[in-house]
Amino acid sequence: MDYVVFIALAPFAAAATLAVGVLAWRRRQAAGGRELAALAALSTGWVVLNALEVLHPTPGGTLFFAEAVYAVTPFIPAAWLAFALAFADRSGRAWTWVIRGIAAVGVATGALALTNDTHGLIWHEVAFAPHGPFLGLDVRYGPWFWVHAGLAWTSMLAGAVVILRVYLDAGRHVRRLSAWVAVGALLPVAINVLHVARVLPVAKDFSPIAVAVGAACFGLGLLRYRLLDLRPVARGVLLDRLGAGVLVLDAQHRVVDVNPAMERLLGVPGGALGQPIGAFLSPAQVEAFRPFGFENDAHGEVTLGEGDAQRHYDLQISPLTDRHGEIHGRLVVLHDVTARRAAEAALEARNADLDAFAHTVAHDLKNPIQNVMGFSEILAEEGADLPPEVLRECAETVHRTARKMQAIVHELLLLAGVQQETVTPVPLAMGGIVAEALDRLHPMIARAGAVVTVAPRWPTALGYAPWVEEVWANYVSNAVKYGAVAGHPARIALGADADASGDGGGGAVRFWVTDEGPGPPEGADLFLPFTRVGQVRAEGHGLGLSIVRRIVERLGGTCGVEPRPTGGSLFWFALPPAPLEPAAVAPLRASRHVGM
C-alpha cells in the first residue's frame, strides 16, 4: 500500500519542487536565488528517478534508476547549505571551500553508485521484492553509503542551524519565514533518517515526498513572505555594521547590549554587559547626558569631546516595553551629526555673506550705473553739439565708471571661486607673484605718484599663486588709496618677517605691506565682509579685505592689521612655511618701484 501511495503522490511532489525551482530561477539575481533553484532542480530529479525506480517492471531497470538517483541526491546537501548561508548572509571563502568539498564527495558517491557491482561500497546486498504491481528494492548498505549519509545529514542540519540562528535573531516577520524554511529542510532529513534506521513501518522511502512538502514550505516563503526579495539580516550583523551607536539598558540602567560603534563613542567595553552604565561614563559624558537622563523618552543633541576631537550627536532615548506596556529598559541611540552641523554652519555663513554682498554690491553699483546712464543719455541727445573736450570728458567718465563696475564683478567671481574651488598649496616664488601684482596696479600707482619699495629676497611659503597675487593686489591698492599724508604721495613697503623665514621650525611665514597714512579707526574690524577702510572718500566697495581673509584662511593661514609705532599701518598675512629653495627666494624684479 505504501508503494501505491508513493506513486500517487509522486506527480504532485515533482510539480511542487519544479514550481519552486521556476520561482527561484526568476529571482536568480537575488542572493540565494540560484542556490534555491539548484536545490529545487535536484529535488525534482530525486522524485522523478525514485518514481521511475518503483514503476519499472524489471529488476535491471529498477537497479538502474536506483543507481541513477545517486547522480542527483549527493549534491542536495551542498545546494541546501549554500542556500542557507546565502539566506542568512553568512557566506564566505571558508564556507565556499566546505561546499566544494561536499560536492566533491557527491561526485565520488555518484561514481561509486554506478560501479557498485564491482565493489559493493554503496550496497553490499541487493534484493528485489514485489509490492502489488510494483517492484521494490531491498538493500543492505555498504561502508561508503554511511559516509555519504553522515555527510548529507550533517550538512542539512548545519544549514538548518544557520536558518534557526536567523530565526532567533530576527524580527517577527522574518521569524515566520525562517520557521517555514527550517521545516522545509528538516522534514526530509527526519524522514530519511527514520527510514534508513528502519523505524518507520513502511517499506518505501518517502524522503522524496517529504522533499516536496519542504518545497511547499519554500513556495510559501516565496509567495507570501517574499523570500529572496527581502533577505533577513541577523540582529548581530545589523548592530555590528550600524554606524550609529546603540546601547540597551535594563530597568536598573545596567548594560544589556552595546554595539561596536557605541563602544568607541562612550568607551563602554563589550565585557560591560550586566554592569551599571554609570561605571563606564566619564564625568564629561555624565554632564552631557544630565539634561536627558535615562528615565524618560528624550530626543536632542549632545556634544562629546573637546577641541579638534569634539563631535556632535543626535541622541534618542526610547523605552523598551513588553506586550503589557511595562517598561523593562531603555534603548539609547547616538548618531554622529558633526558633518551635518558643519555643513549647516558653512551654509549659514555663506548665506550671510551673500546677503551682505547683495546689499553692498547693489549700493555700490547704483551710482556707477546712474553715471553711465546719465552720461550716455547726454551723449545720445546732445553729443553732436558738444565741444570735443566735453565729449572726451564724458567718454572718460563712462570708461572709468565701467572699469569700476568691472572690478566689482571680478571680485565677486573671485570670492565665489575662493569659497568653492579646491586647490593644493605648493611652494611659492613670492618675488614673481609680487611683481605680477605690481604690474597689475601700475596705472593706479603711477596716477597716485606712490613710491613702492620691495624686499630684495623672499622666504618660501605654501600657497596658491593666483590667490596670493590677489592678496598683494588688495593690500597694495588699499595702501595707495589711504597711505597718502598731508597731500604727499603714499610711501609703501612690501616685505616679510626675517624671523619667520620658513626654515622648517614650524612657524608661519608672515608677509606685510606698510604705509604712512592715518590708519583705520580704532576698533574697526576691516576683515569683516564688505567693510571700507575708514571714512576716507576713495574708490572701492568693501570686498577686498573680505576676500583677503577668505583666501588666507583657505590656505591655512591668518591675516590682520596693526598700527606702526612711527605712524601708519601694517597689513599682514601669514602662510604655512615650505622648505627653503634658493630658486624661490632669489629676487626676480627690481627692488624699488617709484612713481609707477
Question: In words, what does this structure look like?
Answer:
A hairpin with a 4-residue loop joins β3 (245-250) and β4. The chain folds into 4 domains: 2-223, Rhodopsin 7-helix transmembrane proteins (Rhopdopsin 7-helix transmembrane proteins), CATH 1.20.1070; 242-336, PAS domain (Beta-Lactamase, 2-Layer Sandwich), CATH 3.30.450; 339-419, Signal transduction histidine kinase, dimerisation/phosphotransfer (DHp) domain (Helix Hairpins); 422-596, Histidine kinase-like ATPase, C-terminal domain (Heat Shock Protein 90, 2-Layer Sandwich). By secondary structure, the chain is an alpha+beta fold. The longest helix is centred in the middle third of the chain and has 45 residues, at 338-382. 35% of the residues are buried. It has helices at 2-26, 33-55, 59-69, 76-87, 93-114, 116-119, 143-169, 172-196, 207-223, 235-241, 260-266, 283-289, 338-382, 388-420, 430-440, 442-448, 465-482, 544-554, 582-585, and strands spanning 123-131, 134-141, 245-250, 255-258, 298-304, 311-321, 327-336, 426-427, 451-454, 462-463, 491-496, 509-515, 558-563, 569-575, 592-594. The model is unreliable at 500-505, 531-541 and 582-596 (pLDDT under 50). The protein has a 6-stranded mixed beta sheet with strand order 13-14-12-11-9-15, covered by helices on one side. Strands 4-3-7-6-5 form a 5-stranded antiparallel beta sheet, with helices on both faces. Strands 1-2 form a two-stranded antiparallel sheet. The protein is 53% helix and 15% strand.
